[in-house]
Amino acid sequence: MVLAKKRYFAVKLFINNYKIDNKINNNNNDDSKDPIISIPHIVKVILSTTSKYLGDWTSACLSKTLNVVYFSIRNKCAIIGCDKKYYKCLWATLTLIKELKSFKLSFNVINVAGTIRACRKSLLLNDKLFLANLQSSLIDN
Questions:
Q1: Is 7 left (phi over 0), alpha (psi -120 to 50) or beta?
Q2: Hey, is 93 helix, strand or coil?
């Protein structure tokens, strides 16, 4: 028996909305009642964008294997998995997404890997590089 080959995307979310950033940074307990973005929202926008730009057949094939393994609104990152056959379709769809729940949003694919562990490492490395760049820019000023 051959295991299904999967591909995982390490993704950073760029949200262009001041009100959402304030709500994320506040430590309110209301976030659990009404989440700004959740895993079902991400899956829904991916499948609707796939259906719109790549067709219903591709959307149906992708929906069978699409899963969001990890998602953090506070860190604005996610790990999204799909079957190896359809990873290029998912990649194209992620670049075409411009809006989610009436606010502007874009996905930046950091890494495509065969394991969740490699995606986690790339997200951590990306955050470390971001912090190093931020620290060097603060020292220069």
A1: beta
A2: helix
The stretch 82-99 carries a mean pLDDT of 93
Tell me if residue 67 falls in helix, strand or coil.
strand
Contact 11, 109 (CB under 8 A): yes
- What percent helix, strand, coil does the chain show, rounded to 5? 55, 25, 20
Residue 131: other Cβ atoms inside 10 A: 10
CB-based contact 92:54 (threshold 8 Å): yes
Q: How much of the chain exceeds pLDDT 70, in percent?
A: 84
Q: What separation in angstroms does the CA of 66 have from each of 6, 51, 87, 89, 133?
A: 10, 14, 10, 11, 34
- 109, 123 Cβ separation under 8 angstroms: no
Residue 112 CA to residue 8 CA, distance in Å, equals 6
- Rounded CA-CA distance 112/48 in Å is 22
Residue 37: helix, strand or coil by DSSP? coil
Measured CA to CA, the distance from residue 2 to residue 67 in angstroms comes to 20
Residue of 45, 44, 37, 20 lying closest to 96 (CA atoms) = 45
Residue 109 has pLDDT above 90, yes or no: yes
